[in-house]
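Annotated sample (chain length 497).
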Amino acid sequence: MWWLKAVAISLSVCAVLGGRDFPPEFIFGAASAAYQVEGAWNVNDKSLSIWDYFAHTYPEKIIDRSTGDVACDSYYKWKTDIELASKMGLHFYRFSISWPRLLPSGFPNYISEDGKRYYNNIINTLLEKRIQPVVTLYHFDLPQSLQDLGGWTNPLIADWFANYARVAFSLFGDRVKIWITLNEPISFCDIAYNVGTQAPGYISPGVGNYICNKNTMLAHAKAYRVYDKEFRSKQNGKVSLSNQFFWLEPDTKSDEQAAENARQLMVGMYSHPIFSKQGGWPPVIERIIAEKSKEEGFPYSRLPAFTEEEIELVKGTYDFMGFNFYTSRTVRNAKPGEEIGAWPFEGGPDINIILGVRGEWNNTDAWWLYITPDGIRKLLGWLKKEYGDIEFLITENGCASSSPDVDDEVRVQYYKEHLEQVLVSINEDKVRVTGYTAWTLMDNYEWTDGYSIKFGLHYVDFNDPNRTRTPRASAEYYASVVKSHSLDVNNKIIDEL
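Output written by the structure step:
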């Protein structure tokens, strides 16, 4: 196979890794998300989600004007999905529960029997196949009825989410031992309210995003405390959240402080309250936004403050750190009068920085995703330095293309190079990385990119009513790594492919 040459070439690179085998306890998986794969948007008693509403109401915001109404049809084809994971030998499958499918009103006053059945079937069948379910409680699909009450900008949502989490823990926690409360608050807070390209699509830069930031921290914390007090002693699971982090590096030596400020804005805003010993917002970001708010004439900071009680509530609410990594950016200080683009892709108006890329970084068919495998090692090193010797679970990592081809050389190379860097982190930097998740098990609905961008280990034919799944070369490569527990893909494994 074409990728065998790439693997052979990398042998010399990995000779310095301290071994090509992953630790015995290291686990490999793949991920998906409810709205992106399930379809069945109005089947039985499921209620409208904000993505149902967003895609139906603003088709012009979706590149191909598509919706997730059917998506991969996984509501009906979940057994097929699990079989794909089983054939690859995955140790776990990360999927999300649709809040409006399980609690159609958004509240626990009514629990859908159909929702219970659907997720119980997935969990039980995964376990029968010896695949561990890793369950995300929230992956962007808020019940629209709660959005009508303000959604993530309503402070009551912290309690709404905790009550939803309690239902999920009580129904499924006897079998689910790894929980992710929230996936990528940076997407449904910062991208949603700064740019409007994530549901709900309301643009309120510098205000709405910060209100959302605080409410997500409180929501996660309250859900974690519910698990701690009511379920941990019997269920013995682990709970954390996942965010998407870029590696952010200085454009030049003179931009180091700018890069550090950017890291604190991207990573620290969602990590310092939880993982630091002090708790609360990153001090440098809290100070900068307060000063800028005052200059702009606001009577108080646009970044809502935590009370002392809230700081203690949020601090320490983790059993590991989950994060998604795809790409990196350079950071430089903005010049006087220079226009600063929107956070988090182009710049940071509040911290006066410009984000960019290096000329040697190869891009992909997703405009935002440049291939920077060394970024994952640099990020892990920074996280360990910042928050201590904690456990890390990489909850997403993957490569985009627009091609349906199953001979996906670039994606194989992407996975190989990133996994090499994870091994460097484990062996050389002594970072406690305990698992890795490929995004994604199969092509799916990629939000405002619709079906135009594909991340799947398996190709899905969205023109076929049966939504046929076909393994790509990347699925074969990843399966060989999983089954050998090593990057040393030997001839026996290759022959089996």
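Annotation: The chain has a mean pLDDT of 95.
Annotation: DSSP finds 18 helices and 16 strands in the chain.
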